[in-house]
Amino acid sequence: PTPASYVVQHFDVPAVVTPEDWQLTISGHVKQPVTLTYNDLRELPGRTVRMVMECSGNDAQFFDAEYAERFIGLMRYLDPAYEGKRWQGGLISAGEFTGVPLASVLERAGVKPNAVNVRVEGTDHGAPDLVMHGLPPSDTPVPPFNYDKGLPMEKALHPDTILAWAQNGEALDHVHGAPVRLVVPGWPGNWSVKWVQRIEVLDKPATCWYQTEYYYYSQSPEDPQREIITTLPVKSIVTSPKDNNPTLSRGRHVLRGFAWSGAGLITRVEVSVDDGKTWRAAQLDEPREKWLWARWSLPWDFTEPGTYSVLCRATDEAGRVQSREARWNQLRKNFNGIVPVQVTIA
């Protein structure tokens, strides 16, 4: 449900702009700059996408014990009532977005042949908090700017990359980016720019701060080999039973969970109750859609009392298999390691 969808923004939520007052400018490396109103956008052929939206920082506390302590300290700072409980899956939600393909809007302006990047800018304005981001402090503060992201042309022109005005069949809420937001299926939520106001087509890669200075893979802040984070990894979780459930009785219990991937359909989920020594294939429930998570389930007969370590791992149509260890990076982004759930049988 929309009210349960997670909310993250790096700067303060901007002032409300009504659909009547909203405008979108498309400029840069185009044949003809264009300004569109909300009604102009709504007149274009629409498209609906059902997808998982996940923050790159989701589950970051599982990377290592040191980071977990920092994470808990941050959560206590933000919420004094926070008790250090595990926050698995907290920065993720799935929903249906309706809008118009970004490609259709770019077509109105006429993209020039040698264009390589599409920079999308929101109305949210501010300066990054380096300490909050886990980056080394600097004597030179970052000047304020409008939040923006630079999409490679191939992703910008994908028919499922849309400028959305609706979520779950209703007009976007302001906190989710109304009147219009960018939606980029398969990529972390930071790419789906909210409160969109400007599009700039470029003949070179964009130099957006939240690409070149944050949201990248590297081994250290000084590592010259930075890789911009794009496609979400393949990932799965156990949702039932949970490791804070009371002791369960012996007998049959149905293990359940979700699996998703930024590269396409989930083709297989496997489950282990002996900490990965043996695996059994789970059943995947319909419907199964490219950008949406798949529900999986597996009945299991627990005949002996004891504590069981339940694991699950997913495989996607690109052949990627979820591993026990996530790809470590100094910003702790895109965690997709296998997290065990402890189940006690009486």
Q: How would you describe this structure to a colleague?
A:
There is one protein chain. The protein has 346 residues and is mainly beta. The protein has 5 helices and 20 strands. The protein has helices spanning 38-43, 65-78, 102-109, 153-156, 209-212; strands at 23-28, 34-37, 47-54, 92-101, 117-126, 145-152, 162-167, 170-171, 181-183, 196-202, 216-217, 227-228, 235-240, 251-260, 266-272, 280-281, 283-284, 294-302, 306-316, 341-345. It has a 5-stranded mixed beta sheet with strand order 2-1-10-5-6. Strands 3, 4, 7, 8 and 9 form a 5-stranded antiparallel beta sheet that branches. A 4-stranded antiparallel beta sheet has the order 13-14-18-17, with no helix packed on it. The longest helix is centred in the first third of the chain and has 14 residues, at 65-78. The protein is globular.
Give the SSE map.
Layout: E1 23-28, E2 34-37, H1 38-43, E3 47-54, H2 65-78, E4 92-101, H3 102-109, E5 117-126, E6 145-152, H4 153-156, E7 162-167, E8 170-171, E9 181-183, E10 196-202, H5 209-212, E11 216-217, E12 227-228, E13 235-240, E14 251-260, E15 266-272, E16 280-281, E17 283-284, E18 294-302, E19 306-316, E20 341-345
Parallel strand pairs: 1-10
Antiparallel strand pairs: 1-2, 3-4, 4-7, 5-6, 5-10, 7-8, 7-9, 11-12, 13-14, 14-18, 15-16, 15-19, 17-18, 19-20
